[in-house]
Design a protein that fits this description.
This protein has about 170 residues and is α/β, with parallel strands linked by helices. Helices cover about 25% and strands about 25% of the residues. The strands form 3 sheets. Strands 3-2-1-4-9 form a 5-stranded mixed β-sheet, with helices on one face. A two-stranded antiparallel sheet has the order 5-6. A two-stranded antiparallel sheet has the order 7-8.
Length: about 170
């Protein structure tokens, strides 16, 4: 199943992005998981950071010096993804340290869904300093509890089937 990822950069060189470096390390460990993977690097920096940085899988670079923000970046990727009929769109930011098995696990999860049209999003469990924080419900006093039901999760690392962002946004 195809995965079209977008990494949004701001004042960060491509080679300094933890996310892109994590993806590269994953590729070198298990390149077959990247057969149907492509990446859009959406750079919101004032200065074009498109340098001769080696990325071993399919990618394209887009520079937006006006810093239009995440919504513009995601909409641009959504337009590009839909035009290419990619299966799933993966939303990432520049500073996510992804596990080496991340893309492999996404591929397995997508394959296990067996084209279930009821699934509109896959959201990873997110940790900061070994503390689980998303997806969760914030209770009175700031206590966070894991959620195992319908929920809204943090955007970074969210995987959506092609067209579902438009579908969710119009319902």
């Amino acid at each position: 199943m195809n995965i079209y990822a977008v990494v949004v950069l701001y004042n960060c060189k491509i080679e300094d992005s933890e996310t892109i470096n994590s993806l590269k390390e994953s590729f070198y460990l298990k390149s077959e998981c990247f057969n149907d993977f492509s990446l859009m690097i959406y750079d919101n920096s004032k200065v074009n950071k498109n340098e001769s940085f080696v990325i071993p899988f399919k990618y394209k670079y887009f520079h937006d010096p006006s810093n239009s923000g995440l919504a513009s970046a995601y909409n641009s990727a959504l337009d590009d993804s839909s035009a290419k009929s990619k299966g799933w769109m993966l939303l990432l930011d520049q500073d996510s340290l992804l596990p080496l098995s991340f893309i492999s696990q996404l591929n397995n999860e997508i394959n296990s869904l067996n084209n279930n049209k009821e699934v509109l999003s896959i959201v990873p469990k997110m940790y900061h300093n070994d503390i689980f924080f998303s997806p969760s419900k914030v209770l009175y006093g700031g206590t966070m509890r894991p959620i195992n039901e319908k929920f809204n999760g943090i955007g970074a690392g969210k995987l959506n089937p092609d067209g579902s962002l438009v579908q969710v946004g119009t319902n």
